Amino acid sequence: MTTQRTSGRRKQAFAAAAAVAALLTTAACGGGGSDDNNGSKTGAAGFDAANNKVAQASLVKKGGTLRFGGAQDADSWDTTRGYYGFMWDFARYYSRQLVTGKAEPGKAGAELTPDLATGLAKVTDDGKTYTYTLRDGITWEDGKAITSKDVKYGIERVWAQDVLSGGPTYLKDFLDPKGEYKGPYKDTSKDKLGLKAITTPDDKTIVFHLPKANSDFQEVLGLVSASPVRQDMDTKSKYSLKPFSSGPYKFESYSPGKSLTLVRNTNWKQSSDPVRKAYPDKITVQFFSDANQLDQRLLNGDLDLDINQTGMSPQGRTTALKEHKANLDNPISGYIRYAAFPQSVKPFDNVECRKAVILGADHVSLQTARGGPVAGGDIGTNMLPPSVPGAEGQKYDPYNIAGADKNGNVEKAKAALKACGKPNGFSTTIAVRNNKPVEVATAQSLQASLKKVGITAQIDQFDGSQTTGIIGSPENVKKKGYGIIIMGWGPDFPTVQGFGLPLWDSKYIAPSGNNNFALINDKTIDGLFDQYVTTLDDAGKTKLSTEINHKVMEGAYYLPFTFEKFINWRGDNLANVYTTDNYSGTYDFVNLGLKNPKK
Amino acid sequence: MTAPLHEPTAEAAPSAAEEAAAAAAGEKVVQGRSLGRIAWERLKRDKLALTGGIVVLVLIVIALLAPVITHLLGQDPDTFNEKLIDPLFGTPTGSLGGISGDHLLGVEPVNGRDILARILYGARVSLLVGFLSAVVAVVLGTVLGILAGFFGGWVDSLISRVMDGLLAFPQLLFTIALVSVMPNDMLGLSGSNVRVFVMILVIGFFGWPYIGRVVRGQTLSMREREYVEAARSLGAGRFYILFKELLPNLVAPIIVYTTMMIPTNILTEAALSFLGVGVKPPTSSWGQMLSSAIDYYESDPMYMVVPGVAIFITVLAFNLFGDGVRDALDPKASR
């Protein structure tokens, strides 16, 4: 999943200083929140009250306007093209899928539940055929019924990457790995439904035929890119400006980068939808160019929550932690922040030299640079995010990262250097994005602790918007001698495949836009992934996930920094709030309600 | 009256005599030396300029001795002290940005590096870039300005147009673009040294037209003077006239412009570092400290105040000194 908010907003920060000072006074006068975890005078539920559990569900009242704010607009509101995590979460307001994540907090939220379909898939033919039946009463915003052909057409749009780029392409990769279908816009068949891998025997039935089994296929159908789109309403590249709604809300107005308003879709029937509660009457989103400004509006109570869900910026966070702790949640984001060691750059072709970096690093210092245990996250000890089945969290710690050697172990690191044939250390370059101050801080921390073991590292800050061409190009990485690359990654869908396949499988090494930065080319890991996609039982999948993680850690390709956490703002007026692992620990937007609709 | 050579007389006598001598004879040796003496006497009386000069000297000494001073204080600019950081907020524990007996100006948020040590080391970068880029600009500006003014014709046209072009060039944007494409290792330099080298060259290169114009103007007005004519009629070569007759008379305006240029260069360096194209971490620089302080302006204002004050004092000192030098060297300037 792509990260959202950018952090290059220094000039605005100056301008905001005065405003923040003013805000501080207001906050102090308002009586503020209290530190206890049992709620505050202002009605906030308490610190972490909505983290993996439901906060104030009984206080919710129907109606009112739910007010979002954001520092960044979505990459696209077109269900086929959006890749930002918050867009997927928000898209459930105006789109439905065959299956989707349960409307439950925490881990349960990541489990699939039928949405447009009457039940989960009937899987036959050794996991190669998936059959769904659509439920009754499902309608578009103009009242017409949603048919299986609409679902097929919506999925076919993923093939039209030349027009509708940007979204995840798993559906295409799984259903048509050879790329034989050219997409609906180049389709020569009359009804534009020429994709052979999907058949629609009648308006209520849809059948998927996979050329090769993939045990995560249903997970992929739960992404918003599998939403139905009606052919006569498809405005191609303009669809993102006004998607045609199949959910409880529809677009009223949208001005990119400024504001977005959704109103009730009167043709949506609660009885046809087991997932969405649709409490508010209206949903507004206001976009700001400056994150500090957004944080102020949240603290003031002018807005209910942040649509980007990437956590507050340092200034607002400090104020919020000091004065409004009851309004905050501290969930695990599903992201892992890490350093990768490209094996093409000497001496990182030698496993012992990679180990030396892992052993020599001061992990507490790295955690502090990421923002500390609360705003940054727990020290990462392995490469599988805790929200993914098969993950062991800090229990699996092969290098004692969070244990005895959490401040780095100079002797062990020097021993590893000796084994690597570099007893006096070596010099290398750390590549880090220049638009993420936190990442630059981690690079400096790593630089300082590596110096103690004799590894001299130079920091090279590259243009953060050019990631695909700079660190995504193995040729460039080798040329520039980037031995250490600082990055982060979150799962597209919560499985080892949704997280690790692009990072660890040798097939995913690409000349540009590469994410397998460490250039892992390990037959064992590739084999485990192949085995994973054909394993259909959950226990077997979990076991293989664990095994893949262990193999990656044994290869010492990565130095994990943190299992990321973030500080998220929950407005006083919000009710029925909970975080879900389906969207990386963010609030489940679709079931948020208000306590006082008139406010 | 036990002091026969009292100050007023000592000062008045040579200057009066000198002015008379300059007007009458125009002998170059006497003229050069006397000008310096007049200036020195004037400068000594200007308390503000003198203070500025002393501060500048102190700064230079501090920058040169930065490793010694930090060592004596038991600090190091690159050592992390996370124990002094509140893990919840990332800001230093204790009041005023963690000021204590060990850390006289506090510590940086997040990593707890000693701010005083980083300010001292930062002074090295600021002054180095400030001085050396001024040297580059002065050398280029003087040589090209004097050539343009003396030879005139197409040489003058060419150099003047180049100066016009450079003055219209978006220097800051160009520098940002240039620095981001610079290799990590160059001419045997690596890391921050590459950046410092590039900054010196670029700031100096874009600075020379300012001096070049002044030198050209002065040369134009002087090349027809009688002493130049006299030298020419005695058979002096072009380069003799250029460097022995004209250049000594240009020393005053050049010195003035140099002292005024250094603080501007220091500010440019700070701006570049602020924008992230200055020195590389962990090398410290005032501009870079300011830029990272922005994320903490509310929770740890001291972190922003310290480098800000350092830049302010340095630039102010140079400007005061520069003003004094200008007044001292230009007898016609009114106070």
Stretches of chain B where pLDDT is under 50 for at least 5 consecutive residues are 1-14, 26-32
> Helical region count of chain B?
12
Second-tier CATH architecture of the largest domain in chain A: Roll
Count helical runs of chain A: 17
For the record, what CATH class of chain B applies?
Answer: Mainly Alpha
Short description:
By secondary structure, chain A is an alpha+beta fold. Chain A is built from 17 helices and 23 strands.
Features:
heterodimer; A: 599 residues; alpha+beta; D-Maltodextrin-Binding Protein, domain 2; Dipeptide-binding Protein, domain 3; 3 domains; six-stranded mixed sheet; five-stranded mixed sheet; 17 helices; globular; disordered N terminus; B: 335 residues; mainly alpha; MetI-like fold; two-stranded antiparallel sheet; 12 helices; 2 strands; 71% helix; transmembrane helix (chain B); cell membrane (chain B); Peptide ABC transporter permease (chain B); MetI-like (chain B); MetI-like_sf (chain B)
Structural overview:
The complex is a heterodimer of chains A (599) and B (335). Chain A has helices at residues 10-29, 85-91, 148-156, 170-175, 217-221, 291-300, 314-323, 351-360, 363-370, 372-375, 410-419, 437-452, 467-470, 474-480, 496-504, 523-534, 538-554; strands spanning 65-70, 99-101, 112-114, 122-124, 129-133, 198-202, 205-209, 249-255, 259-264, 282-287, 305-306, 328-329, 332-340, 377-379, 427-433, 456-462, 482-489, 558-565, 568-569, 574-575, 579-580, 586-587, 593-594. By secondary structure, chain A is of the alpha+beta class. The longest helix of chain A has 20 residues, at 10-29. Chain A is globular and about 75 Å long. Chain B has a single domain, classed as MetI-like (MetI-like fold, Orthogonal Bundle). Chain B has a two-stranded antiparallel sheet with strand order 1-2. The longest helix of chain B is centred in the middle third of the chain and has 37 residues, at 115-151. Chain B is elongated, with a radius of gyration of 24 Å. The A-B interface holds A 10, 13-14, 17, 20-21, 24, 313-315, 317-319, 321, 362, 364-365, 368-369, 371-375, 429, 434, 437, 440-441, 443-445, 447-449, 451, 458-461, 463, 480-481 and B 78-80, 82, 85, 87-91, 110-111, 180, 184, 190-191, 276, 280-282, 291-292, 294-299.
